[in-house]
Amino acid sequence: MRYFWQSAALVLTGLVFKALADGGDFNITSPLDHGVYVAGQMLPITYVLLGDTTDLELEIFLKPSSELNSSTVTVAQPADVSEDPSSIVTIDNRTYWQHSYNYKIPETAPAGSYYVIFSSFGYNTTVPISIRAYTPMPSTSLAPSTPSSSASGILSDGSSSSVHSSSASHMLGDPRPSILVTVMMLGSFLIVPLFEKF
C-alpha cells in the first residue's frame, strides 16, 4: 500500500508541474496541459531554460484546431532565451532562467481547441488548451442595490441559469479545474502523514 501512495504522488506531481520540451532545452510550466482559458483575457506562457542558451532559437505560436475558422498567431518570434540576472530562478540549488509572456487572447477568438506551440530547431512541443468565448462583463450601476441570496442570468448558449447562493462566483466558469487543484493540494497534505508512519 505504501508504494501505491508513493507512485500516485509522483504521478500527480509530474502531471501538475511541468512538461519537458521535446528538444530538452527548456521546461514549459504554463499554460497548463488541457487548461481552459477565456477570450479577452491573458494566456500565461512560462518556460524555464535548462542549460546553455547561446545557440537556442525559440518561437511560440498559438494555433487553432482544424475545426476552427481561424489562423495561427505568433506569440513570440524570437522568444526570449537570454540569461539575464532578472530572470534567474533557483530549483534544487541550481540556477536556471525563467521567461514569461502574458498573451492577451483576442476577444474575437472563436471558442474551441487550440495548441500553444514551442518551436526550437525543428522540434515542436505542443500544449493543448481550450479557449472559451468572450463574454463581456455587465456594467455596474452606481445606484445602491439590495443584497440577494440568489442570482440568475442568461448563459452564452442562450439557456437560463439560476444560482441560489450568496456568491455568484460559480457562474464564472467550469469549477472542475479549481476542484482538481484543491483535491490535489489536500491529497498532498493527507499523503505526507501516511509516509511518516512507515
Automatic annotation (TrEMBL):
* Keywords in alphabetical order: Signal
Ranges of biased composition (kind: Low complexity): 142-170
Q: Where is the signal peptide?
A: 1-21
Region (Disordered) residue spans: 142-171
The protein's name: Ser-Thr-rich glycosyl-phosphatidyl-inositol-anchored membrane family-domain-containing protein
The species is Syncephalastrum racemosum (Filamentous fungus)
